[in-house]
Every structure is written in structure tokens, then in C-alpha cells.
Write a structure and sequence with these properties.
Layout: H1 6-35, H2 37-57, H3 71-85, H4 91-107, H5 123-138, H6 141-162, H7 167-249, H8 254-286, H9 292-295, H10 304-313, E1 317-323, H11 331-352, E2 357-364, E3 368-375, H12 391-402, E4 406-412, E5 415-423
Parallel strand pairs: 1-2
Antiparallel strand pairs: 2-3, 3-5, 4-5
Helix pairs in contact: 1-2, 2-3, 2-5, 3-4, 4-5, 4-6, 5-6, 5-7, 6-7, 7-8, 7-11, 7-12, 10-11, 11-12
Catalytic activity: ATP + protein L-histidine = ADP + protein N-phospho-L-histidine
GO molecular function: ATP binding; phosphorelay sensor kinase activity; protein dimerization activity
Protein name: histidine kinase
């Protein structure tokens, strides 16, 4: 690859060094005018006023028509200056005013013909181009296009009426100036609109992110509440029942009381173990650890017999009946089925009391698993206080919703009944 010699690189370096300060200064001006919008308008208006006064004062006396700068000319320039200064409020009025001032200054002789030679555009006319830029920037494209066409047509009338020597050049210059000004304004408006759309999109995405985060927090709170309820309510209910039974048997049959107390200790230890496991898992998940299902297997529906036996030991007269051919269950359905039976038996123990009869029916169908748990409400209701706000039923409904199942609960004679239908297809993705 060819390289530049040191002799040829030196001029380029000097040019770059000369251009860099100008570029930096221009960027500083743009930042300042963006922060103070009125500063750009005031600068344009001041430049317009000074340029018009200089051009009017330097007009040739031999021009036809010619008129020396007087109070009338100054007032016309002041009108155009005020219009440019207020262009942000009404760009259409600014375009109309600057166009009228340009026509008046030219027709009255304050500004001579072709003050810039071949350019054919006076400074008053340039003020109208600035107003066109402002209108294109601050109005929609349809309206600004209409204003552009109207400005070119109306601006051509004075040129034809005044009988200029080079009307074609002046008309072409006028049209070119207006089109260029409109193009710059339209490009700026499009860029501003695009930037605003990006900003709106970012704000919308941020709002959606907050909504999703809040939903995730609510879902996590519900999950924690379900698991805490399943662990605490189940074990504490068994502990209270065993403690009450041991108290009754303590003086009459110490051996039975001792067995109940031993079981009570085992239940308490199991509760502590479950609670520690739950807290450990929640802490590890909060720190980015793997989900607890991967580290601590959950109970499964295959342990239904053991679960039923636990409640039988607590005093419930549980009868378990199965129908249909057992089939493998998806993980979500498996855990949900186990928790539904566990919560139903816990509620029967708490509300119907020890000694109540509970019927648990498990039916495997072609595409669903149906669970029915009914108690007769005839047990010793003093064993466990029936307080609570329905967290267990809420948790059951949430679990059912997650696997797209059905749940029905309600009174059944003197007792209570729970019916759950779980799809065998699995949990919701």
C-alpha cells in the first residue's frame, strides 16, 4: 500500500490543524443553541438586520428605482427582524412577513437589483429562506410543501412585475434557495422525529421492564407463600394434634403418650429440615444459584400412601381408593397432585378434627387425573385452631392454574369437599 511522504503529510497536517478549531467551535455553537433555542433565533434575526441595513445603505444611486435608507426602510427591516426573532412561535407568519419585507425593500428601491451579481438573491430574500427552514422544521411535511410551492409562486410575482433584467436567474435562485432551505428543515424535522421515537421506545421498554419485574416479584412472592404454607401448615397441624393427644394420654397410658411425643419430635425435626431447605434454596436462587428442583427433589405423587399414613397416625380415618391405570405425571402435575391431597388432609385435620372420616379418591382417566377429597366434619374440632385467611385454598388454586387444571371446593353436608382435575399432558410452558 502506498504511503504519503513526510513532505506531503505536512500540508495535510496543517490543514487538519486549521480545520479542527473551527469544527470544535461549530459543535460548541450547536450545543449552546440546542440548550438555548432563543439564542439561535436571536442570532439569525440580528444577522438579518445588520445585513439588510448594510445592503440598503450600500445601494447604488444610479439604480432604478433607488431610494436612500430612511425611517421607512429601517421600519421595514425591523419588521423582518421581529418576524425572524419570533419564527419559533409562528413560522408561517415569519415567512409571510419576511417575503413581504423583501418585496417592499426591492420595489421601493432600498435594495438594488442583483446585489450579489450572479447569485441574484438579496439578504432580505435570504431572510425569507430562513423562515422557510423554520416552517419546514416545525410543521408537517404536507403543510410545509404547500408553503414551499406558495412561496416560490408568490415570490416570482415581484420579479415579473418589477421587470428585472435577469428574471430567469432570479427565479431559479429564489426556487433553489427555498428548496434548499425546505430540505434542510425537513431533514432536521425527520431526525428529531426519529430521535423522539427512539426515546419513546426506550421509555416504553423501560416501563415494560418495570411491569415484568413487578410481575416476577409478585409471582415469586406467591410461590414462596405457597411453599411456606405447605411446609409450615402441614407439619404444625400434625404437631398440634399429636401434642393434644399426648396430653390426654399422659396420665392414662404413658406409653401411648410417649409414642405420640416421639412422633411429635420427629414431625418438628422434619418441619425444621423443610424450613431450612426452603430458606437455603430461596437464598441460593436469589444469588443466581440453580433452582431448588434441581438441588432438592420435591415430594411426588408416588408418595401418596406415605402421606396418607402420616395423617392416619395423627388421628384422621383416611380411606384411599384408586381407579384407572396409573400413568407417569409431568413434574408440575406430579407436585400439584401431591400438594392438593396434602393441603386437603391438613384442612380436614384442622377444621374437621382428629377422628373425622376422610375419603380420598384417585381416578386416572384418558387425559386427566381427578382427585376427590371429602371429610364428614365429625372429628374433634378442638385439636387445631381453625384460624387463617384461606392461604391454603389460594395456593391450591394458583397451583391448579399453573397446570391448567380445574378446582372446585365447598361444603359437602357437614364436611368439606375438594375436587381437582389435572391434565395429564403436563404443566404450562
Amino acid at each position: 500500500m502506498a504511503t504519503l511522504s513526510g513532505r506531503s503529510q505536512a500540508p495535510l497536517g496543517r490543514v487538519a490543524g486549521a480545520v479542527r478549531p473551527a469544527t470544535t467551535a461549530w459543535r460548541a455553537v450547536r450545543r449552546r443553541t440546542a440548550a438555548l433555542p432563543w439564542l439561535g433565533d436571536a442570532t439569525a434575526a440580528a444577522g438579518y438586520a445588520v445585513g439588510c441595513l448594510i445592503e440598503a445603505g450600500s445601494a447604488s444611486p444610479t439604480a432604478d428605482p433607488y431610494r436612500a435608507l430612511d425611517v421607512g426602510g429601517v421600519l421595514l427591516v425591523a419588521l423582518g427582524t421581529a418576524a425572524l426573532a419570533l419564527q419559533r412561535r409562528s413560522p408561517a407568519a415569519a415567512l409571510l412577513a419576511t417575503g413581504a419585507v423583501a418585496f417592499a425593500l426591492s420595489s421601493l428601491g432600498y435594495v438594488g437589483e442583483d446585489p450579489f451579481g450572479a447569485l441574484g438573491l438579496s439578504l432580505p430574500g435570504a431572510g425569507a429562506a430562513v423562515a422557510m427552514y423554520a416552517l419546514s422544521l416545525r410543521r408537517g411535511r404536507p403543510r410545509s410543501v404547500q408553503a414551499l410551492l406558495a412561496a416560490i409562486v408568490v415570490g416570482a410575482v415581484p420579479t415579473l412585475v418589477l421587470g428585472r433584467h435577469n428574471p430567469a436567474t432570479e427565479l431559479a435562485t429564489l426556487a433553489l434557495a427555498m428548496v434548499v432551505a425546505w430540505s434542510f428543515g425537513d431533514a432536521q424535522r425527520t431526525r428529531h422525529a426519529y430521535t423522539a421515537s427512539l426515546r419513546d421506545r426506550a421509555e416504553r421498554l423501560e416501563r415494560e421492564r418495570h411491569v415484568l419485574a413487578e410481575a416476577a416479584v409478585a409471582q415469586e412472592r406467591a410461590r414462596i407463600a405457597r411453599e411456606l404454607h405447605d411446609v409450615v401448615a402441614h407439619h404444625l397441624s400434625l404437631m398440634i394434634v399429636n401434642a393434644a393427644a399426648a396430653d390426654r394420654q399422659l396420665t392414662r397410658t404413658p406409653a401411648v403418650a410417649h409414642a405420640l411425643l416421639t412422633e411429635l419430635v420427629g414431625t418438628g425435626q422434619a418441619a425444621v429440615t423443610e424450613m431450612r431447605r426452603l430458606l437455603t434454596v430461596l437464598r441460593s436462587e436469589g444469588e443466581g444459584g440453580e433452582p431448588w428442583q434441581d438441588r432438592h427433589p420435591q415430594p411426588t405423587f408416588a408418595g401418596l400412601d406415605e402421606l396418607v399414613q402420616t395423617f392416619r397416625s395423627a388421628g384422621l380415618q383416611v380411606e384411599l381408593a384408586r381407579r384407572g391405570t396409573p400413568r407417569p405425571l409431568a413434574a408440575g402435575v406430579d407436585l400439584t397432585a401431591y400438594r392438593i391431597v396434602q393441603e386437603s388432609l391438613t384442612n380436614a385435620l384442622r377444621h374437621a378434627g382428629a377422628g373425622a372420616r376422610v375419603q380420598v379418591d384417585v381416578a386416572f382417566g384418558d387425559d386427566a387425573l381427578e382427585l376427590r377429597i371429602r371429610d364428614d366434619g365429625a372429628g374433634a374440632r378442638t385439636a387445631v385452631p381453625p384460624g387463617g385467611v384461606g392461604h391454603g385454598l389460594i395456593g391450591m388454586q394458583e397451583r391448579i392454574n399453573l397446570v391448567r387444571g380445574e378446582l372446585a371446593v365447598g361444603a359437602d353436608g357437614a364436611g368439606f369437599a375438594v375436587r381437582a382435575v389435572l391434565p395429564l399432558a403436563g404443566a404450562r410452558a
